[in-house]
Every structure is written in C-alpha cells, then in structure tokens.
Amino acid sequence: MGYCPNTPEEIRDMLAVIGASGVADLFAPIPEELRAKSFNLPAGVSEFELMALMREKARQGGTEIVPFIGGGIYDHIIPAAVDHLSGRAEFYTAYTPYQPECAQGTLQALYEYQSAICRLTGMEASNASLYDGGTALAEAALMALRITGRHAVVLDGSVNPLHREVVCGYLASLEAGVCQLPPAGCEVDLAGLMNSITEETAAVIVQHPNFFGSVADLTELAKKAHEQGALLIVSCYPIAMGLLKSPGEMGADIAVGEGQSLGNPLSFGGPYFGFIATRKRFIRNLPGRIVGETVDAQGRRGYVLTLQAREQHIKRHKATSNICSNQSLCALRGLIFVASLGKKGFADLALLNYDKAEYAKSVLGALKGVSLANAAPTFNEFTLKLPKPAAEVVARLLDRGVAAGVPVAGYYPGREDELVVTVTEKRTKAEIDALAARLEEALWN
Amino acid sequence: MELIYEKSVAGRSGVRIPLSDVPKAAPLPEALRRTEAAGFPEVSELDLVRHYTNLSRRNFSVDTNFYPLGSCTMKYNAKVMEQAGALFVDCHPMLALLPGGEKYVQGPLSLVHALEQQLAEITGMDEVTTQPLAGAHGEMTGIMVIAAYHKARGEKRKYVIVPDSSHGTNPASAAMAGYEIITIPTAPYGDMDLDAYRAAMNNEVAAVMMTCPNTLGIFNPHIAEICEIAHQAGALTYYDGANLNAILGKVRPGDVGFDVIHVNLHKTFGTPHGGGGPGSGPVGVKKGLIPYLPTPRVVKNADGSFGVEAHPEGIGRVSDFFGNFGIMVRAYGYITLLGGEGLIEVSEQAVLNANYMMARLKDEYELPFDMTCMHECVFSAARQLKDGVHALDIAKYLIDRGFHPPTVYFPLNVKEAIMIEPTETESKATMDAFIEVMLEAARLTRENPDALHQAPETMPVGRLDETRAARAQQVCCEG
C-alpha cells in the first residue's frame, strides 16, 4: 500500500536474519506507555480516486479569474522546456549534492544559476537559493548586521508589506532595530531615507520597483548609505531587470528578490525561490549553500559545495543562517527560464511587460473619475486612484471574472481609494479593454 | 561538460515570446534603464534541451539509484502526486487575500486545512501551520512561537538545550530566534546524558529540542521524563520531526509530552527532494501555544466554507503566503492515498529494512550502539581506518558500484560515521545488492586498501579539490 515492495516471504526471511519473531519485536524499545493514543485516519484510496478528489479541489481554484494582481507574485509565460527539463527525475528525485562526483548535474546547474543571478542583478556572488522573496530580504538584513556590526536597519515603507512583515519578525527575534519610513505617496521617499541613516544603521532596505509599481534611481541613496558606513539592500523584481537598472549598477551591496517570475508557476503561493547576491568581498557572510568551481586530480573541471564553514552542519549555532534545504529545483527552473529566452528574449519580455502596462495605464487612467497615483515612471504595475473604495470595486469585479488589482488599504490603512494594478505580458489587449469596461461599469453603474 | 554560457552564440535565439498586441510605449527615461542587457546564454531550444538533459544524467537520484542517505528519508516519490500538483499551478495566492477573494479559492484553502488536520492527528498536536518552507524554517518558527509564549508570561528566558547528536539546524535555528545554546553530551547508552541534562535545566531555559528516534536511529526510552523535567522548570519541549518516518501510528510526539513539533513533508510524506529543496516544514503546537502561531491562519467557518484570518497575537509572518503549497498538495495526496493503515506499514517496513541492513553489516562494520534501531542505523568505519580506509573512501567506492553513499561523518558524536537509512520503499533484493558491495569494500580494505582510495573512477570527475574551491571562490562565471 505504502509503496512497500517486500513480500510476506521476504519479510519472514529478513526477520530471521535479524532474529526477531515479528515486526512488533522491533518496536519493543518503545515503552508501552508512550504508544500512540489515537491514529484516526481514514482508509487509503487508489491513485485514481485520489485524482478525482484532487480535480474536485482544483476546480475551485479561481483559475477562471483573469488576474491583474501581483503583490510580488506574477502570472508570466513559462516555456514548455522549463517543465520538461526540471521534471527530469535525475534532478527531481536527488537531494543536496553532498557527494559531488555523482551530483555534477545539480552542482553545475546551480553554478550556472548563480552566474545567471549575478548577471541579472549586476552582482559578483550569489548563493544557490533561499526560500522566497520575504525570507531572502530578512536574510539580507541579517547579513548586513553581521557585516557592519551594527544593530538596526532603515526599511522603506514602499517595500512589499508581506516582505516587511517577514523582515520585522526575523529582526525582532534578535532584538535588532527597524526604522520603518512611510512611503511618499507611491514613491520611495529617497530624501527621508537618506535622513534616517545614523551610525547605528546597518542597511537601508528598498524595493525596485516598489510595491506601488514606481521606479526610482537609487544611485544617490547608495552613495549616501556608504558615506555613513551602511549598506544598501535592494529587493528587485527579476523580470523588470530586463529593462531597469540593476541593483549592481546603482551601487547596491546586496540584491535579493522573489524568483517566482522566472519560470515558476503561481501554485497558490509556492514553491518559489528567493535569490540573494552580493559583492565578492561579502561572500563569507552569505547565508545558505554556495557552489564553487574546482578541479579533480586529473585537472578536470568540476563543481562542489564550497565555503561550508559558514553553514549550520559545521558551525551549528554560529552559522550565518539556519537554512539547510533551500529551493534548488525552483532555482533550476529559473535558470532554464532565462536560458530559454536568452539575452535578447529576456530584454524583449521586459519591454513587452512595460508596453502592456503603459497601454493599460492609458486606458484605465482615462476612465471618468480615475487618475494615476504614481508620480514616477512604472514598470508593469501602477496605482490608480478611484472615485470609490477599491476593496468594494475589487469584490464586485471578482464576481465578473476579473481580479482588478490589489487594494492599497489592506496594507496602508486610510488609502481606501487606491488600487495597484498589474499587467504582465500574458494579459491581452482584449482583456485590458474588458477590464476598463468593467471598471467603468463598477464605478458608475 | 561545457557551461551553457560557453555554448552561447551571439544572435542565436531561443523560445519566442508572445507578439505584442498593444502600441509601442514611450521609452522609460534613460537614467532608469539598464545600460547593458543581462548576459543570458543565447542558445537554440535543442541546444538547451540537450544541455540540461545531459547534465541531469550526471546525477544519481532515487529514480535511478538506491539512495540510502541517512537522516534524509530518500523514499520513492509516487508519480500520481506530480499529476495532482500540476492541477493547481495556475491558482494565484493573492486571490485569497483580496476582499471577497476567498470564495474563489475554496479548493486550495480546503486542502491546506485538511493537511493541517491530518498532520495534527498524526503528531498528536492540537493545531498546525503549514507556513514554514523547510525543516529548518519550521524549527525557527517553532522556537519563535516558544519565545512568544514566554514573553506573554512576562518571562525572558535565555537558553535552548540541544543534545550533541542533534542536527546542526537545531542550534542554528534557536540562535536565529535569539537564544544561546547549551549542548548536552551523549551518554554511553546512546542518548542524551540525563544527569547532565537535569543539571543544565533551570528557569532560564526556554526549551529543549529533541529528535526521537535520535540521529543514531535509537528511540530514547527516557523521552517522557525529559519532557517532564523541562515542564517542571517552566521550559517547553520541541520535537524535531526529521525522523518521524520511524514512528507513524506507533508514537505521537504530542502524547509523549512535546509542545511544539515540525515535520518534513519532503522526508516522511514522500515529496521529491528536488536536488536540495523545495521542502516544507509545517509546525504543530499544543493548545496553549495556538495564539502564537504565525499569521495568517486558514480557518473553517461555521457554514463549512474556508477563510483566511489574520492572527494578531502571533509571531507575525514567516513566509509570504500559505507555505510551499505545491509540496503540500503532494503530502496531502500521500497521506490520503496511504490512509492510516498505509502509514503504519510505512514505519514498520522502514524499521524492518534498517534492522535488516544492520544485522547483515554488523560483523564487518563496527556498530557503536548495538541495539535494535528504528528507521536508520549508524556504523563506524573505525575498524577500516586501521587499514587506512576512511568512511569517505567507502562512500566513493559505493558510487563506482552504482549506489548513492549513506550519510558520512554525521552524527558528529560517532567517529567515521556511516549512517544508513534504506526507507520502506526499497526491496530486499536492492538492499542485498548494496550489502554485498559494502561487504566487498570491507574485504578490499584488508586486501587492497588503495583500490578504495582511487574511487570513484567511473564518474565524469574524480574526487574534487575542495580546498582549491574554497580558496578560489569562483562562484559565478565571468561575462
């Protein structure tokens, strides 16, 4: 039943070798009084009944709704080769490459992944992945505390609110200080951030583009942070990096992000992966696994897990992080995704996102009573001001088969009339026009 | 093999992206634009497919090789679970957080809730959160819950106790949650030294973290007493569920006296290991700790529908949504397909296989703790070391013979440790073939130890120079 292959005869033979009369003997070391008091689970089913049950649940999954929502997770194309190649059992059913000679597939792929993340972010050293965007940002903050020996961070209020919650949770455990700055409307408050840096500040943390979709040049912020001995941490949206200045180009010290957009499906919240990359001089402070290049005795090139003296299985409580299993397979999907599109395809994809969103902006922003809330340019997300509470409009449009956006008030109380709208390359002109028509109807009828 | 970047040819294009059906927009201001496109490889789809297919062939995996990696529970991953996971790939998690959005995602929400209930029953806990994204993440979440509990009682405790045989993640996770660590040595009877533990316990200790069966594969008969000693001092008890595969339906940590537990869905509940993740590490707690679970919670409403609720008293958010949902689908499928009886059979067969392995190998390999084991057994290559052969040499020899090596050099309290976990899904025939090679390695050690030092010789690379890798710090290719 449990994919257990041994026949009664084989089990009998094995028990004879052990010298036990039955399987029950093997559990004799467990005192009677410690035995399970209940184990009330229904009888098993076949895989066919299971699939019927799963299909029933999947039918109520909201996939009929056209998503103009993001919030860090985006509905992008995934080339067929990504599923196919990452689904190879040799990748899928292996584990952490502790024995490098029989894991060169995983190790080389992760080395290629690390190289892709460096190229994406304009950085020099990447690890082999973290859990997700929020935890990657938290790990980056911890890394900055270690590097600077300081005990507080300045956190911009236009960083994804879900990620900010994760960062605050991690930092609170270590009693590190977090100075949260409210956004300036929909923009990163660059002046405010610069003024908040003190000699206790380990890092300034910003998102690029920010939660409202706005894009800022962070070069001056990086300079100002460095002048005061602080680091700049930039959480970036990987698809946008096909068009926008990378964190590296702007002088950031640590770049992180949610990797989902790179070839990982929505899958109701995971599995995705977090990426983290930094300058080479900070490599020993990176959390998690790192793959490095080396050679064997015959001079053949190969790859191994390296700088393991940072990690929990060696350093225990003095490790740079507790992370062990990461999101290797999701990172592999990310790598195959960027390799499928290539240098030009990736840049073209970013541009297509930008064009679609600009079109949507022009159509939606022209609706009666609707205006654009962003003062800065945007990438594929933007914020609208509506003449009605956004939550009400969103709930109404859901019933018309469209998720019109994420109401800002859910995360920024008091900003009831604002709505963050996401338009990826998958949204067609017809879908955008239909959204405009339904939005107008919801606002005025 | 060349890197994909080395196969890149300028101007070669891969997969075509969708055509645009909207007008070209005015360009972004130059100051915001990237000056040079990211240097991703330019390869054809066939180049790409060949490259990664050939790379994959340089891996051992459960589907291709016996993989008795101790402490990792490398069991077979049923293919139907992949079919099930694929049904949910288009579900957007943000939909669940929109006003009025819950009613459109009743299927996935009901699955999260059902899995939480299954895990609560299996572990004997009162409530479970699926938010943690891996085992270590579950540990950190669990210890944060414990910290929140003490804080709410106006107590500031400083220490977390771990045995020296614990996984490295235990002390690392407790440290990330803000605690100092007290490590207790292993007694000659194979478990945490009870006297040393008793002496270390006081009202400054927040929790003790135990793995049971421990990393030696031994069930600790004093486990209830250990919990009691902690509780008397006002400390809580944490159960690391890494080895849960040994005791399904036999022992429930909640019944024994544990307050908090994490389980590894990618170990016990049959989800694929993915070359190092994604995993999933749900956390279960006893009633008094429910208020401190992370936000949000998936709840069942009075009318039978499912909703998402903020959990204001809790420790906050530990991951972005509801956890690694795709992994949860597979684990829910696994538990549902096997049912209660099937899960009990899993543990019985896992323990039988490990004891068979132990019985067949113990004449040739030293067994530091010679007693009935649970799901895994730990040998030492101390005897082989006298002839100059290390556990690592035996591991490399196994690779040449087509077997993924067991875990070596862990746990740290066994010299030259060889930790074998066959799991329940392996047949006697597969184990016999592995045992023959292990016995052969022991024979070779006596007759021709150099043969073991040369291994592996059949792989694309031989033993790699790790010192050079650490010194060179070449972690990404130029370009």
UniProtKB/TrEMBL annotation, chain A:
Residues 3-437 form the Glycine cleavage system P-protein N-terminal domain. The keyword Oxidoreductase applies. One of its GO terms (molecular function) is glycine dehydrogenase (decarboxylating) activity. The keyword Oxidoreductase applies. It catalyses: N(6)-[(R)-lipoyl]-L-lysyl-[glycine-cleavage complex H protein] + glycine + H(+) = N(6)-[(R)-S(8)-aminomethyldihydrolipoyl]-L-lysyl-[glycine-cleavage complex H protein] + CO2. GO terms for biological process: glycine decarboxylation via glycine cleavage system; nucleoside metabolic process. Keywords: Oxidoreductase. The glycine cleavage system is composed of four proteins: P, T, L and H. In this organism, the P 'protein' is a heterodimer of two subunits. HAMAP family: GcvPA (MF_00712). The glycine cleavage system catalyzes the degradation of glycine. The P protein binds the alpha-amino group of glycine through its pyridoxal phosphate cofactor; CO(2) is released and the remaining methylamine moiety is then transferred to the lipoamide cofactor of the H protein. This is Probable glycine dehydrogenase (decarboxylating) subunit 1. It comes from Geomonas limicola.
From TrEMBL, chain B:
Its EC number is 1.4.4.2. Gene3D superfamilies: 6.20.440.10, Aspartate Aminotransferase, domain 1, Type I PLP-dependent aspartate aminotransferase-like (Major domain). GO terms for cellular component: cytosol; glycine cleavage complex. InterPro entries: Aminotrans_V_dom (IPR000192), GDC-P_C (IPR049316), GDC_P (IPR020581), PyrdxlP-dep_Trfase (IPR015424), PyrdxlP-dep_Trfase_major (IPR015421), PyrdxlP-dep_Trfase_small (IPR015422). The keyword Transcription does not apply. Keywords: Oxidoreductase, Pyridoxal phosphate. GO terms for biological process: glycine decarboxylation via glycine cleavage system. The keyword rRNA processing does not apply. One of its GO terms (molecular function) is pyridoxal phosphate binding. SUPFAM superfamilies: PLP-dependent transferases. Residues 347-441 form the Glycine dehydrogenase C-terminal domain. Pfam families: Aminotran_5, GcvP2_C. It catalyses: N(6)-[(R)-lipoyl]-L-lysyl-[glycine-cleavage complex H protein] + glycine + H(+) = N(6)-[(R)-S(8)-aminomethyldihydrolipoyl]-L-lysyl-[glycine-cleavage complex H protein] + CO2. Residues 144-270 form the Aminotransferase class V domain. The glycine cleavage system catalyzes the degradation of glycine. The P protein binds the alpha-amino group of glycine through its pyridoxal phosphate cofactor; CO(2) is released and the remaining methylamine moiety is then transferred to the lipoamide cofactor of the H protein. NCBIfam families: PRK04366.1 (NF003346). This is glycine dehydrogenase (aminomethyl-transferring). It comes from Geomonas limicola. The gene is gcvP2.
